[in-house]
Write the structure tokens for this entry.
Amino acid sequence: MLKKIKFKGGFFNEEKELKLFMNEDRISVLYGKNGSGKSTISNAVRKAKGDVVDDIIQATLLDEKDMAFVDTQCIHVFNEDYVSSRVKIRDDGLNAIILLGELGNLEDKILDLELRIEAESKRNAELKTVAGEYKDKDNIKSPSNCKFQINLGLSGNGHWAEREKIINNGKRNASVTDKVMDSIIALQPAETLADLRKRYEENLQLLSQVIANKAAQIRSTVKLNVSYDEKPLQNLLSQKVERPTLSDREQYLL
């Protein structure tokens, strides 16, 4: 049988033990002036039965043997917090409306939903603005605008298109395709821009000499790590190849 409560928090800074029922009494009245701790005691009972009460540090219900009272499902607390959370009065002159129980929270739920809708509407408007910027090809934040600027920077004389033409000994500047841009964007050079320019100019000069047949010597060669037998190769090169007999048509095509 429930007899007392031991608790700490709220109005009581030190741990307090309070007898709720004397002898075999089934009714107990606690009274006092405002601020004397009545609400704190009721909140301590709520805490002891498992409710979340922030200002109560700890609370335990005890039976007649000072053992923990475990049958807390039969305990109900009707204090000021309970009433304010479940009873709402909308006063509009003579048209006052009282909402009880779960309906008492209905107005708060509606207000919460309205605030959420307003926040989501604001967020959607911001996302629409960002999406509009991305779709506008004249906006610097747009992927299309970035792609256009990259294409512009690679095209024309003095840029990649002309250098590619020179390297391939072409007659017109190379085309800047999506594949070209993707491959250039994916590059991660370790050298500085100055070093890259210097190496490019040196290699371009050497390439020009090779094309003009003026290169005296290739300064660097690449060693192929390929194993082969030199003797069969020499035998093949030593064999005489007979000149084929071609028809008039074959000679014309050649």
